[in-house]
Design goal:
The two termini are 25 Å apart. 34% of the residues lie in helices and 19% in strands. The chain has a domain at 36-90. The chain is of the alpha+beta class. Bound molecules: zinc ion.
Length: 94
């Protein structure tokens, strides 16, 4: 079976999934680059960051807004058949 032969396929094994039968899973993945607030020391706060920020923005000037956004935030929706899901959820980063 080729990867695009069915409307709704398992992301791992490409098995056709049947909506309404309850035998597959929808997995939403949200990835956000380091969401913790920057850890500024008092020295950092006393310093003027304008030059540094301008330098960074210049470095990123080659990237489109879309590419820049992709580096910070990604949202994926995957569908998996029951067997694949049960394997995957035990080791999602494997
Ligand atoms: Zn599968």
């Amino acid at each position: 079976m080729s990867k695009n032969s069915c409307e709704l396929c398992c992301a791992r094994c490409s098995a056709e999934l049947m909506p309404g039968k309850g035998d597959f899973y929808m997995v939403k993945i949200e990835a956000l680059a380091d969401p913790s607030p920057p850890d500024f020391s008092e020295d950092d706060l006393a310093r003027d960051h304008k030059a540094e920020i301008e330098r960074l923005m210049e470095q990123m000037g080659d990237l489109s807004e879309r590419e820049l956004f992709d580096q910070i935030y990604r949202r994926l929706v995957l569908y998996m058949c029951g067997p694949c899901y049960r394997q995957w959820i035990e080791n999602p980063v494997g």
